[in-house]
Write a structure and sequence with these properties.
The structure holds three protein chains of three kinds.
Chain A lengths: L2 H12 L17 E5 L5 H17 L2 E5 L4 H15 L3 E4 L4 H14 L1 E5 L11 E3 L2 H15 L4 E7 L5 H14 L16 E3 L2 E8 L4 H14 L5 E4 L4 H12 L6 E5 L3 H8 L5 E4 L2 H16 L11 E3 L3 E3 L4 H15 L1
Parallel strand pairs in A: 1-2, 1-3, 3-4, 4-5, 5-12, 6-8, 6-9, 9-10, 10-11
Antiparallel strand pairs in A: 7-8, 11-13
Helix pairs in contact in A: 2-10, 2-11, 3-4, 5-6, 7-8
Chain B lengths: L6 E10 L2 E11 L4 E5 L6 H8 L7 E6 L2 E3 L4 H6 L2 E4 L11 H5 L6 E2 L2 E2 L1 H14 L15 H14 L4 E5 L7 H16 L3 E5 L3 H7 L2 E6 L2 E7 L5 H9 L17 E10 L7 E6 L3 E6 L5 H8 L5 E8 L2 E2 L5 H6 L2 E4 L3 H5 L6 H6 L7 E2 L2 E2 L1 H15 L15 H13 L5 E5 L7 H16 L3 E5 L3 H7 L2 E6 L2 E7 L5 H8 L9
Parallel strand pairs in B: 3-10, 3-11, 6-9, 9-10, 15-22, 15-23, 18-21, 21-22
Antiparallel strand pairs in B: 1-2, 1-4, 4-5, 7-8, 11-12, 13-14, 13-16, 16-17, 19-20, 23-24
Chain C lengths: L1 H20 L6 H26 L7 H18 L4 H24 L5 H20 L11 H8 L3 E2 H22 L6 H20 L8 E2 L1 H19 L1 H11 L1 H6 L4 H27 L11 H11 L11 H20 L7 H30 L1
Antiparallel strand pairs in C: 1-2
Helix pairs in contact in C: 1-14, 2-9, 2-12, 2-13, 2-14, 3-4, 3-5, 3-12, 3-13, 4-5, 4-12, 6-12, 7-8, 9-10, 10-12, 13-14
Classes of the chains: A alpha/beta, B alpha/beta, C mainly alpha.
Amino acid sequence: MDRRRTSILIAALILPAATTGCGADDGPQRPQVAYVTNGIASFWTIAAAGAEAGAEAFDVDCDVRMPASGSEDQKRILEDLLARGVDGIAISPCDAQNQAGLIDEACALTHVITHDSDAPLSQRLCYVGMDNYAAGRMCGALVREALPDGGTVMLFIGRLEQDNARLRRQGVIDEILGRSFDSSRHDPPDQPVSAAGYTVLDTRTDQFDRSRAKANAEDALALYPDLGCMVGLFAYNPPACLEALRGAGRVGKVKVVAFDEADETLQGILDGEVHGTVAQDPFRYGYESVRILAGLARGEEGVLPADGYLDIPATVVRADNVEAFRATLRELTGASR
Amino acid sequence: MSSRALLEVRGVSKSFPGVRALERVDLHLDEGEILAVIGENGAGKSTLMRILAGIESRDDGVVAIDGEVVAPESPREAAGLGIALIHQELNLADNLDAGANVFLGREPRRFGLVDRGAIRAGARSVLERVGADFSPDAPVADLSVGRRQQVEIAKALSCDARILIMDEPTSSLSRAESERLFTLVRALRGRGVGVVYITHRLGEVTELADRVVVLRDGRNAGELRGDEIGHDAMVRLMVGRDLTVSDTRSAAGPGSVRLKVEALATEHSPQSPLSFEVRSGEVVGIAGLIGAGRTEVLETLFGLRPRLSGVVSVDGVALDTRGPRQAIDAGLALVPEDRKRDGLFAEMSVRENVTITGLTALSRAGLLDRRGERRLARDLVERIRVRTTDIEQPVATLSGGNQQKTVLLRWLAVRPRVLLLDDPTRGVDVATRHEIYSMIEELARSGAAVLFASSDLEEVLRLSDRILVMHEGDLAGVLGRAEASEEAVMRLATGARGGAVG
Amino acid sequence: MNKTLGILGLLVLACVATALINPQFVSAYNLQNVIRWTSLFGILSIGVAFVIITGGIDLSIGSVVGLVGCLLPLLMVEHGFSPAAAIGAVLGLSVAIGLFHGLLITKLGLQPFVVTLCGLLFYRGYARFVTGDQTQGFGTGFETLRGLATGKPTTVATSIAVLAAGALLLEVLRGRREQEGPRRGPLLAAGAVFLAALATGVFDPGGLAQVRAPAPFLIMIVIALAAGLFLNATVGGRYLYAIGRNLTAARYSGIDTDRIVIGAYVACSALAGLGGVLFALDVNSVQPAMHGNFYELYAIAAAVLGGCSLRGGEGTVTGVVIGAAVMRVLYNSINLLEIPTQLEFSIIGAVILLGVAADELVRRTVARRRRGGS
């Protein structure tokens, strides 16, 4: 945030219409692609940096759109893009099952791929992202490391309607309980499941309201005085857990295992308050999505990955590699601003 | 009396919280009869008519049409029984044309759509019957009050009404328009319609009515027919005694000029500036028909409406009328016409209602002196005998008269130099009305200048030292006590020139 | 008063039921949390109560909370403002927002619903724009400042004892000033509360003496006292109720209605701003698009539950604070009783509806009895 931005702000107050100032007109001949996220988060800021880097490298215009209020906003954005006639859309569907129809509609008009969260029932051309179930299992392994002698575990997540959220959570549970690989399994959220000394008590959702996220963590601490581990599955959940633990004076007594790479999470790993996290590579989500869309727009079908899935594996971050990871991250986001 | 009346009312009673509006009232109406129902404000006329028209429910008693007991529970049901009520406030949709209003609520349809052709044809014939000189396409908003009334009557006729109830139909008509209405009413009588005619104007009763029923304090006070119908007889029944003009006012005569109004132009009639003055100790009444601009003058003086031009001064100091706050600071007070809408805080206590204007004087460093407030409220309430034992009682539970006294008390608390009152006894029972008159006179005696507007001529004649008569925004004339009479006022109010202006 | 007792009964009922089913409810840790959330939402509710009493509404509260929550860390972390300057700036902005609403509503005659609905949209969009949709936070610094929201300077028992003692003293002083002696009811109530708090502090039953008072609780108490004093004991407070009962009658009585109404909107937005500061300090992670969403509805619901009428002219500070407490206890018990979270909104909605309907039925019964008696 520099001073120039501040002065734009003031101008924007007077001229609200002038706020969408990113449409640099380099000429109509460059393909236009769009990168649609499922919400607004720092995670998506990194992905947007990747998408912009991709646009630079593959000579396309990329429009990054972040819906503020979930699927209905996403629908509106998608319709606007289709009306404008873009050459390709990469989308992270908020609600894969119910948006299949919408995505198919878009497929009829342009090239559509999914990223971050897949919509396997739709006709999207491919999926760029990580296998959330596998990543969940990596996270579950971290829980077993943090609680070698077993114990109770609470899960915290924004919402469960999204495919990635559901798979991620299932992966965590299956790994903790030592079950076989089967991503189609489903445990209902509010029934405890246990095996071999581990109990997954409950999964609390907050619908992206951070006050709720913190209150959920606090209530769990109040309810279970002997809680062993809190797992925060969306980027802001681990920091909310840490805040609650600080308030309760139980930092270190209750383990925290994280997902994603929020600043507070990484700092927590450094300080020994968080056992570890599973980090995705959002920069590459953005970059690879734009690469594929650019190719498709120019008629190069070869850019599509085999079996429609480009795996961008997650990384496990613990105390031993957190410094290096943070340095890379800073480089990426620093370059983007 | 025929053996089987068109309409028969037996022993009807009705109570509102705190008020007994009707007490075992009887009434009958024959076919082709004009029955005048008279009584003072609050005598129960309007309540009775609202019960007949299905707007209010009755607590007790029987209503029969052609000998058959009925109980209309909505205006729609009443209309189905052949009863139509022409309201004091006309009930027309301003935004529609005359024809659409005649058929409002029962539009003829074709294929599920409103059949405009049928409306126009039907409305034209029924409007002709009431002697209308305008087309069914005329927008109601453009019609004069008299013509709007014709629309209302046409509407009633189009539903085959056999019983037509008219609530003060001439209160806002010019003399010529009233004459036309009388002709129409007589024609309806000829066709067998029974007309219940409610009015304050006793002259009309003598001219029009076959029979008169007088109500007083919610009861039957008597009945007059044929030659018995005369002004004095009616007044005696209405008031319950011979009306002696009380002359309680001091003979000392008014003092210095308190309120001076020079070339005041109001929004209502910017073209006719008004000039008059009111002296200390003087009570001046403003008379005029509805719409003559009485309320507008009072509200402009009080800063509720913009003053377009002119100078108003109180005790020689020019008045700043940006708003009521400034007017009150200059010593003005206004008792509004519609106390429910503009005066009372209905759910708040009597104490809170009477002290609201004097709170700043009762506070120290911003904090209320609650004990002082209670004392003030008790003093005020005792002084004029508001019939309430408890100053913490919500004002809504008081009778209309006591509510009106509460609004007056609010101003006694701040001792105004100029007291403005708009229809001060509207809907107030007779006994309380006299108490309000003595409060007003007492205030005048103590040196205040009183300026009041009223649609009740008797009230104006009784209270005023001088009467300002208004006609369509103009000051049509000023009448001193000696020259004031009902006829003189009406002549000026309906547009005839005369009287000494100034 | 009856309303306040009714809602207090509901609060006690919810607390006792939850505590019986899950004793963790009365653990010091959980009570502290419930009290902190109650206080944060209570501050917003007191603000909106002012506006509701005038017969208005403020839908922009949540967006003001969001905007303030974004600007505070932005100013401090990115622009290097000192905490005092940053808090001053955002509170000043909140006051300006309230003034803006009030002027539009009184001088231009716009409807409160419309004005504040536009506010809701505008401030939310502006917050997202200023921050570029970046999540804001104070990081690990500013621990002292964050103590305003997360600190626990004293125990609840102590603060309640101090409050009760103060009430006792005030009643004695009032009795002397009005030369009628202190009234027995308030005196006994305050005395009983004082002794109960003292006994709790000394004997520590069930560890209740360990329950520390979160800083927002103390802040809310101060605000509630000031608001209560204003509404009950000043001319301005009386005018506020009168305006809510009958705006024209208030004008005809010479009350400067515009000034009072503007004041109410300023108080509402200022308290929303203060709440926004505390929420941001507490959560430490402010997401511009989401932070504070729906908080205006929680605040309005608490105010209505606490006895405010959306028709205006009614409402007490005590009722509103208790209303906010009921909402937070319900949220807490849904989690503690392990009721499926999906039912959360349904339960809260049902309880508010029941409360309001019960109140209306009681009111009618009383009115009917009064009419029958006269």
